[in-house]
Amino acid sequence: MNKKIEKTEAEWKSILSPQQFYVLRQKGTDAPSEGGYTSFFEKGTYVCAACGTQLFKSNSKFESHCGWPSFDDAIEGTVKYVLDKSHGMIRTEIICATCGGHLGHVFDDGPKETTGKRFCVNTTSIKFIKQE
After folding, report:
1. Which of 30, 31, 51, 103 could form a disulfide with 99 if both were Cys (CB 3.0 to 4.6 A apart)?
2. CA pair distance 20, 36, nearest whole angstrom
3. Looking at residue 67, which CATH number applies to its domain?
4. Model confidence over 51-63: pLDDT tens digits?
5. Among this protein's residues, is 120 annotated catalytic?
C-alpha cells in the first residue's frame, strides 16, 4: 500500500489541469465519452492521474455502454468507498486511497460472471500505462 499523500488544495491546483482539479478535488464528472478511455482496451494499468497509484488493471475493464470507462474490480487496497448522498441519490463514491482524489462511483450492475460490480470512472481521474 502506498503512503498517503496530503497536499493543500492550492498545491493540487498548481499541479493538476483545471479539468483534473474539478474532477479529482471537487468531485466533478466528465461528460460521457470524454477523454478517450471509454472504448480503449490496450493491455496495461490505469493509475490515479493525481498521484500515480495503480488502481485498475486492463483485464478488469469492460464495455458497459454507459459513456465512462468501466472496470469490474479495482486493485486491492487502492480504492476507498464513501457513501454519497449528493444530487438526490444514494451512491457509493470511489476515491483513491493514496491521495483522496475522486474517481467516480461503483454500482452493482457489472458483469455477473465476474464481480457483478461496475466501477464507473472519470477518464480525467486516471492515466493509462501501457504494458511493455
Report:
1. 51
2. 15
3. 2.170.150.20
4. 999 999 999 999 9
5. yes
Tell me the DSSP string of 47-106: EETTT--EEEEGGGEE--SSSS-EES---TTSEEEEEE-GGG--EEEEEETTT--EEEEE
- Residues 32 and 67: beta-carbon distance below 8 Å: yes
Spatial distance between the Cα atoms of 125 and 30, rounded to a whole number of angstroms: 9
**3 part of a folded domain:** no
Place of cell 497509484: 53
How many alpha carbons lie under 13 Å from residue 77 in its C-beta half-sphere? 4
Pairing of strands 91-96, 79-84: antiparallel
Q: Which domain holds residue 60?
A: 9-130
Annotated catalytic residue: which of 48, 51, 99, 120? 120
